[in-house]
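Protein in question reproduced for absentees:

***
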Amino acid sequence: MNEVKEAYAWVPALPGSVAVASLAVYLEPCRMNDDRETRRYLVSGRVQGVGFRWFVEREAATLGLTGWVRNREDGRVEVMATGTREQLSALHGRLREGPRAARVDEVAVSPAPYLDAKSFAIEGVW
């Protein structure tokens, strides 16, 4: 919470005017309550070669998430996303659906170290 500090100063009066009191209020800086967290999703099924990464990038950006998505050599798609619990829950639901050409068999979710990304991107295009 912000701590309020007040400082009073008297402003001297010029001839023919009235002296006034000046009030300045200083707010101590406080940390923003950031309730964002990062989760890692591993999506299994027919999820490569069907536009899945582009689907994830669009959905994540629509939800206001940051992070990345990439194909893995084992055939799964990996997603690292940072946002609020509500945003991440919505992404999880969309990952389970996938794009029309995909078949999602499983979405494994795990907590991950905080990822401070500025946007959401497709990584590791190969």
